[in-house]
TrEMBL record:
UniProt-listed InterPro entries: ECM_Assembly_Org (IPR050525), VWF_A (IPR002035), vWFA_dom_sf (IPR036465)
Protein name: Collagen alpha-1(Xii) chain
UniProt xrefs under PROSITE patterns: VWFA
A cellular-component GO term for this protein: collagen trimer
Keywords: Collagen, Signal
Upper lineage: Eukaryota, Metazoa, Spiralia, Lophotrochozoa, Mollusca
UniProt xrefs under SUPFAM superfamilies: vWA-like
Domain annotation VWFA: ranges: 37-213
Species of origin: Plakobranchus ocellatus
Signal sequence region: 1-25
Organism superkingdom: Eukaryota
The keyword Signal is assigned to this record: yes
Length: 249
């Protein structure tokens, strides 16, 4: 990555915080789409506070609420990672969104290291395989949330490159991070970066990017890509989302 790109992306991120909801109502208008398997990788390391871990769960639930869920639409899986990777929810585990939501709520905070490489490896070699409920024809999307640097940036970045090379689209979400972490989280993500890298100052602020992340995932599916960034008017985020997230916890 060149310094020029690095200098540009704070502006891109500011723009992302204000991405409008692309004409969304309750669920994203992802109709006529291909089926997609989306896996969320949650940071479960010791650096995260209990409340903030809950906020991550609320964030996933809020995104799930926006997606058409089911065997011909979105399937949702969850892993959490610290020193180890924990399989929390298989892609085909729940038929009903309500049951999926309840299961997300029960995910436990493990409080150990930050093995992001292992999370990427596990996602590619296990979660996105048919043995784990993935559908071979479905688009593969991975949303990785982290508040810190992984244990080995070199290994993490190259593992992410392997995952992308087999067709896994990676969205990375950095929470309260500095330049070193930002470099890593940026290197992990798919291109265009403006559509795949999200940054917020604190876990509370995850609520402000629910619509942006769901829209980005959905738009990539529809093949609209980054053009959607410019074709819509800039609107403020939905103030209701934080309340909606709290309601789950
Ligand atoms: C954290 O992970 C390390 C390395 O895997 C292990 O040795 C240690 O016991 C773990 N600590 C806790 C509290 O689980
Ligand atoms: C980090 O990962 C790289 C590439 O896998 C490896 O060569 C290196 O030894 C690792 N560093 C540490 C400190 O484990």
């Amino acid at each position: 990555m060149t310094p020029l790109v690095l200098a540009e992306w704070p502006f891109i991120l500011i723009a992302l915080l204000f991405i409008p909801s692309f004409g969304l109502t309750a669920s994203i208008a992802c109709s006529n789409k291909e089926a997609a398997d989306i896996v969320f990788a949650l940071d479960s390391s010791f650096s995260i506070r209990k409340d903030d871990f809950k906020r991550q769960l609320g964030f996933i639930q809020a995104i799930v609420d926006q997606l058409e869920y089911g065997p011909n639409d979105y399937q949702v899986g969850v892993i959490s990672f610290e020193s180890d990777v924990i399989l929390e929810i298989r892609l085909d585990q729940y038929k009903k969104k309500w049951d999926l939501r309840k299961a997300i709520n029960k995910i436990k905070h493990m409080k150990n290291g930050t093995n992001t490489r292992e999370a990427l490896h596990f996602a590619r070699t296990q979660m996105f395989t048919e043995a784990y409920g993935a559908r071979s024809q479905a688009k593969k999307q991975l949303v990785i949330i982290t508040d810190g640097l992984s244990e080995n940036t070199t290994a993490t970045v190259s593992e992410a490159a392997v995952a992308r090379s087999v067709g896994i689209e990676i969205f990375s979400i950095a929470v309260g991070t500095g330049p070193a972490e930002d470099f890593e989280i940026h290197s992990i993500a798919s291109k265009p970066k403006a559509y795949h890298v999200f940054k917020v100052g604190e876990f509370k602020a995850l609520a402000s990017i629910v619509d942006s992340v769901s829209s980005a995932a959905c738009d990539q599916l529809l093949g609209d890509g980054p053009s959607a960034l410019t074709k819509e008017t800039v609107l403020p985020g939905k103030p209701d989302t934080e309340k909606a997230m709290r309601a789950y916890n």
